[in-house]
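debug: dumping io for the single-chain case to check the tokenizer round-trip. Nothing else runs in this session.
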Amino acid sequence: MILFPAIDLKDGQCVRLKLGDMAQATVFNDDPATQARNFEAQGFEWLHLVDLNGAFEGRPVNARAVDAILDAVTLPVQLGGGIRSLGQIEDWLARGVRRVILGTVAMREPALVREACRAFPGRIAVGIDAKGGRVAVEGWAETTDLTAVGLAKRFADAGVAAIIFTDIDRDGILTGLNIDSTLELARSVPIPVIASGGLASIDDIHRLLQPDCRILEGAISGRALYDGRIDAAEALRLIRDAR
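debug: decoded output
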């Protein structure tokens, strides 16, 4: 199980949103590269980056902050938000991103996901964000009629490296992960799934280390790490011991 610390970028700063609302953003660090170095020093194995402005605008916006993070750490980085073309995917991978996350475009242009998986094997993830069980796109501003499981099944044979499943109804409010929905998704496709949205305490880490969650690749934590509800050293020790 991998614990992915999240760095969400808004206007060049490291923030956390509440329920995906850009108007409810809390700034935790105005220097994302320093935050990335802190996470590396704590012993994390990956970083999860999201260009929040990019997700809403449909184009990369926080590229300078992402580049600064890539220069600051040696950890593998996965990045999502506003990536809508093969050229953008290729550019980010060339700049040092290990894995690109495709969200809105996976819903709008599934053929692009397949093309990207063929061109860059093992380096394309799909972000599935759900509100009330339905897929949300365009920075969570629009909810579709498609279920998360339905979208995931479209890519079952595409060669996707991972699915990042976010329960928007829990994101940023520290109510705990939606384990049931996440496991339902993970059991529906042969693609590794990463849980996101609501991870609140060390109890969530214990839950993720139970036998039924071994099917998951890991989970993303944001606010709970920033405000100290989860002690990084304790969480990482539990994960190491479970291995």
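debug: round-trip ok. The first strand starts at residue 2 and ends at 10.
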